[in-house]
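ARCHIVE CARD
Drawer: 12
Card no.: 0347
Subject: one protein chain, sequence and derived structure
Cross-reference: see card 0346
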Amino acid sequence: MTQASPVPTGEPRPAVSFEELGRDGNAFAIMGVAIRNLRGAGASREHIAKYQQEAMSGDYDNLLRVTATYLDIDGADSGWHPGEDQD
């Protein structure tokens, strides 16, 4: 399992809703939403490239963990963590 790097100081961590992120559960769609929000928040090209590299370095659960590190996902403090079932 790949561990996502902490977001560097000075780089944005845009807020994204579960609904926006999960509209299409496809991995490429999730990455597209993340990249669009990072760009919109003014993230550097290097920061976005690092997100892409980390997000694609593992399985689907890794993608969700990395995305949750780079974005402030609504409800992230609800006790649910990416990769866990929402029973």
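Annotation on reverse: Residues 15-73 form one domain. The radius of gyration is 12 Å.
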